[in-house]
């Protein structure tokens, strides 16, 4: 079996959202493997700072995935696409479900069609554990019956997944779909730690928490997530269907073997910062409409291939706080 | 319980694709119930002839669902939407998957967003048994794990379904999703009977069949289908979730308790027409790339509410041939 570095060495690799939290880590890894990387990003949440030392070594295209002509031209000669760009700020999707649909579903269709027109045959896609909504089985495995989408975000990602399935089957592509839990770590730009850090910086004696603090969530350190993605790409030939045949689409949950209450996460943050705020809760079991109060993924499929995460949720939370502490500019320009 | 006629009497009802095969039958029924009907159709496959005697009694808007401004304005004051318009010519989707995506998925998003902006809270959606792809269980029940989409058509409809789920949950809508088998009967405009009739009219001694003739499919007469839809709308309060609570989204398979081989269907057609063609097969177990060779839906959910179809598949096939025979103009202008 060729190593993962051999797979990507000297290859033309296209990364949508390559200037973002997740995408920029993938870019770093690809450069390490000797790939020739093209980043396509509209910089709606991406930052040039995240590309940092990678910047001189990549081709950077500043444009939107809804610009079909530019996207299609840009994908000439590519051999692999990491489709990471997304509207991932879940809690705001209620306000503009159409934006979420265009940025997550239509953009994915555009990527797939550009791949088809350019003969690009491999895609890795950043999906989400939110597609399970309130899983009928928890921890939730990949092949559970998915009954209902309750948020535009989960729906827009699920729609992206089914489009990828159809293109893979119809046009002989090979796909890897990764359903992430919430990701933490360096270059984190939005989410509860971001919100809490901002509040505590303004006033370390008070903290307002949406919901009741008992939302039970899973988190994964970005370094572990990227490790898992490349591990899966290297080892997925062993992920076969029930008849023992290779799959056109490999779907992997990525997460830690633990979940934590929002209140636990708050205690990790406040104890790291050395503050003891009075906490007030907005109430209800959800942080926002469409929030899923218990997300915990069964990661047996990738664990059985041999991967497991290195960081605990507590370590991931603390690393995130440290990153914000050392990079306060993300607060000023973040969402 | 109010009767279904009471539910729709004097109500403003919006029917997308209301000039098409399925939509026009729904329009007829709604007029019978005393509804005030607005048909929104781009006449890509719809026909004024299908509206026939209904035409003077409806508001007809000739436009495309991708015209968001027109669609949104048109939905003012509506209380119920039948979203029936679709690109349903499955066998051609391979050639233009983007068109299929826009006409089935983006159009559905546009309908949902227009409903949200106009405060319309009820939708009935024409989906398809194709969303099950090659079901892991046959006959296939509604709550099976759906593993993979292999065609742009199935994917585009599945994507439409998940968008409806999210809007229903997030914006307090009530949805009915109907997963049809292939429909037959009056106003039928495309499909295998159409193709065979055309061939046999040109030369009754020869018939070319795509695949091996052993594709195993299910069919439902349009009259039974429309009966089932209104029956479900009248009785779905009894379709509750596992905890006994009402559902935001009711999903119903609609089909007959039998399936038939393509060769059986051919024998119904040729014996009705009194011809004995030499049949040549193009070979393979599928009619086209992405064709699902065995579709058979488990309709227990709606049967348990008390509905069952009246026509057999054979009767539905014969009625379709009779319709084409008596309305040959559909051949000339059909696809």
Summarize the structure.
2 copies of one chain form a homodimer. The first copy, chain A, is globular, with a radius of gyration of 19 Å.
Name the descriptors.
homodimer; 335 residues; alpha/beta; Rossmann fold; UDP-galactose 4-epimerase, domain 1; 2 domains; seven-stranded parallel β-sheet; two-stranded parallel ribbon; 12 helices
**What is the CATH topology of the largest domain in chain A?**
Rossmann fold
The counted number of beta strands of chain A is 13
Order of helices and strands of chain A: HEHEHEHEHEHEEHEEEHEEHEHHH
Please give the CATH architecture of the largest domain in chain A. 3-Layer(aba) Sandwich
Fraction of residues in H or I helices of chain A: 25-40%
Alpha-carbon Rg of chain A, integer: 19 Å
Name the chain pair with the biggest interface and residue counts per chain: A-B, 36 and 36 residues
Give the CATH level 1 class of the largest domain in chain A.
Alpha Beta
